[in-house]
Structure formats: structure tokens, C-alpha cells
Amino acid sequence: MRRIRLGGHIFALLSLLLCGFQEAGAQSSRVRRKPDAENGDPSSAARFRVRPPRPRPHGPEIFYCETPDPSCRTTQESFFLDDLRDLYVFVVWPGVTGQHVQTTEFFLPDGSIYSSKKTQFIIGGVAAFSAMAPGLRNEVSPLAPARHLMADANRIHSQGIPSLLMKSRGDASILTVLPVGGTYITQRNLGGTWRVRVFLDDRLALESAFTLRPRPEPAKAEQGAER
């Protein structure tokens, strides 16, 4: 009887030890199988990978041309004063919709203002827009005073320009024409670097500059080449 009892105790002790080893092995296995992004587990790293932020829409842009066709879009900012009849100034408004007023101010090389041109336009049917420049907010522009002094971009215009509201690389653009040939600019030979400021609903959206320069005389050009 004593041998049987002793054998039973030994069997129970061995069973407890075996259960303990099995539980420890299971915990160790769970620890090894647990994905850990910090340890370089590829599946875990892919699961917790942070998506890169979406690029923000670019802001308004300005470009200058010698023709009223927006396909002339380049980075040219210098023109021969004697050859230029009109300077066509395009302002691109990506993401802008609704009713707005664009004001384009032209400043002489000496810093004084030469002219200010206002253009009212409507893009799409939603009277709101996404701000593309610092200080601009989503809102509807108020009814502008002195509408008779403003150009209406949505109407048909003469002189070969069907509309002042155009498309440039998929974005809406507003055309402003600065007459040059036969004006005070050529009469007074107002060459040099001109500054341009553009407002959207009375808020400054961008600033730029262009240069009107005289064409070099052939004699002077030949003398310079000989030297």
C-alpha cells in the first residue's frame, strides 16, 4: 500500500512539472510569434506604415505673353519695348470657383502706379473657393461697386479675344491686357522693370515683375561684337 501511495505522489508531481513546462513553452512561443514593428517585422511595419501627406494645391501664378493665347505660357519676363504692341498678362487661379473680382495693378519703374484694372468673373456654379494664397478665406465676394469700370471676363470681347476667362493647363486663368505701343509708355520711353500686384476680392494674392527694354541698335551691337 505504501508503494502504491508513493507511486501516486510521484506520478502527480511529474504531471505538475509537465504542465508547468508546457505552459512556459506556450508563453515563449506566443512572445516569439507576436509581430513587433520595432523589431523589423515586415508585416507589422507594412500594417503601421504612415501614409505620406497629400501635396497641397499650388497657388496662383502669373505669366506674360505677346499674344492673347494662353498656350504661350512661358517664364518670359523681358520684352523689347519698341516691338511690343500689347502685353498680355495671365493670372492662373487653380481651385478657385464662384464669383470674384481680380484687380491687377501696374507700377512704373520709379515705383509710382501706372494703372489699375479690375475684372469680374464667375467660375462654375459654386459661390465659394479654396484659398490659394495667404490671407484668402472661403467666401463669396460682395457685389463690387462701379461695375461699369470693370471688365466682365464672362462676356464676349472684341479684338480677337473671345473671353477674358480662359484655361491654362486645366486651370482657370484671367487675362488682363496692358496696351504698350502708341501709348504713354512708348511716348515717354518708360522702359525698365515694372512691378505687378494682383488682388483677389481686395486681398493681395501675388506680386511679380516684368522688364521692358529697348532693342539694341545694330551699330552698337556690331561694335560690341568686334570688341
Question: Could you characterize the architecture of this molecule?
Answer:
By secondary structure, the chain is α+β, with helices and mostly antiparallel strands. It folds into 2 domains: 2-47; 61-213, Immunoglobulin-like (Sandwich), CATH 2.60.40.1930. Helix content is 22%, strand content 31%. The strands form 2 sheets. It has a 6-stranded mixed sheet with strand order 2-10-9-4-5-6, with no helix packed on it. It has a 4-stranded antiparallel sheet with strand order 1-3-8-7, with no helix packed on it.
Unreliably modeled segments: 33-37, 126-140
Overall morphology: extended
Q: Do you know the CATH topology of the largest domain?
A: Immunoglobulin-like
The assigned structural class equals: alpha+beta
Q: Main β-sheet, in a few words? A: 6 strands, mixed
Any idea what the radius of gyration is?
A: 36 Å
Q: Give the neighbour order of strands across the main sheet.
A: 2-10-9-4-5-6
SSE succession: HHEEEEEEEEHEEH
- Percent helix, as a range, is 10-25%
Q: How many strand units?
A: 10
Task: Give the overall pLDDT as a whole number.
Answer: 78
Number of domains: 2
